[in-house]
Design goal:
By secondary structure, the chain is an all-alpha fold. About 70% of the residues lie in helices and about 0% in strands.
């Protein structure tokens, strides 16, 4: 691993612990103590499944920043390259979606409506950050490449990428 990628991996690991670790870990724990309330079995199973899908989705998204972007998701240590591969081919904001999935999955698994409220608040905050800061910074940093990416890949609702021939005008 190159020195740049090693720094990117270390920075991404630190940011992972701080951002998703707090938003989808420490705060839900502070709100619930991980104490479960009664919830139908089907709801708990769905919650566990959502958490089980969200965690590897989030880890993959972070790994793309290191491998493809040679940087971190943290605004203080951005990537050298626009990240558009892996899960980023399907949705522009997979990290935020994965964190939201983890929170809502925990809400269902634990039967704790307070986590639904926390998920809504966190979701509004993430959406606001993307719209108010991140998109303009990416547009300035990566120009036409980001504009094309933004036009081709949805921000919040994953979809299958169009065949390469459909992307040509």
């Amino acid at each position: 691993m190159s020195r740049s990628r090693a720094r990117a991996a270390a920075g991404s690991g630190l940011f992972f612990a701080v951002a998703p670790g707090v938003v989808a870990g420490a705060i839900p724990y502070a709100l619930t103590g991980w104490e479960a309330h009664d919830a139908p079995l089907a709801v708990r199973v769905a919650g566990a499944a959502l958490v089980a899908v969200s965690v590897p989705f989030l880890l993959h998204a972070f790994a793309r920043f290191v491998a493809e972007g040679v940087g971190t998701p943290a605004p203080v240590a951005p990537t050298e390259h626009l990240v558009v591969g892996g899960v980023y081919r399907y949705v522009r904001n997979p990290m935020y979606l994965a964190v939201e999935g983890m929170i809502l999955g925990q809400a269902a698994l634990l039967g704790r409506p307070v986590l639904v409220a926390w998920g809504a608040l966190a979701g509004v905050a993430m959406w606001s950050f993307v719209r108010g800061y991140e998109e303009s910074v990416l547009a300035e940093r990566f120009g036409a490449a980001y504009d094309r990416y933004k036009a081709e890949v949805p921000g919040w609702w994953p979809r299958r990428p169009r065949p390469a021939s459909a992307n040509r005008s």
